[in-house]
Amino acid sequence: MQEFLKKPGFMVQSGTLGADLSYLLAVVFTVLFLVAWWMAKKGQGTRHHKLIFVSAVSMVVYFVAYYYARSLGVLALEGKEGFGGPPEVYTSVFLPVLYTHLTLVTLGLIMVPYMILEGFRACDKVNGDYVLKPGELKADPKKFTRIWLWILGVWVVVEVLCLLAGKSWQAQLAYFLIIMTIAGVVGLEKLIEKWLPDGAQRHRIVGRGTMVLFALILCTSTATYLMLYVIYPLKAATG
Hints:
The chain has two domains: about 1-135 and about 200-239, Four Helix Bundle (Hemerythrin (Met), subunit A) (Up-down Bundle), CATH 1.20.120; about 140-195. The chain has about 240 residues and is mainly alpha-helical. A two-stranded antiparallel sheet has the order 1-2. The chain is about 80% helix and about 5% strand.
């Protein structure tokens, strides 16, 4: 998979196929989320629900597969991103943008499943159409406890299997981050329901915040792509 992603790209001469696909899909997913948000503003609940669900599931699958294949977070720690610019720009500009992008992506992976689950809980079907229902929306504390125990159990089993299989610490870290992402989705609900007890209001406000988050992901993705393959490509640095 890594060899396939490293093939020459189609957007710029110094780019790679993986980088080009990553950036284009980031644009596509952002546009789809904005369209789904516009549908919600127009009161098209069912169309919004379907588009956001398909887009969100596709995005999560893509991000998990892509970042696992490229190991971009690990490469950042090892300094192997292929940045061809001056060391001071790499340290003071590129790495902060890259780390910000990875942080925003992680938050996005938490917010997407949260918004889907919260959307199901905050809606009713009226004449076959999804409509947000006003009123207090809280989860059962006992269910939360059981979910946390299941997450803890899954994490322990995964860590034991990784140790028995002799997996690297990077692989163990990746699995830990996946489990923490799931835990973050669960914990986020308990935190936000205290701040915004009304389910419909919660979905609207947090939904707008999530749209801003994905716009920032696109901005940092664009900045990273430009610095790596347009402004400071590695070939330019090596002659």
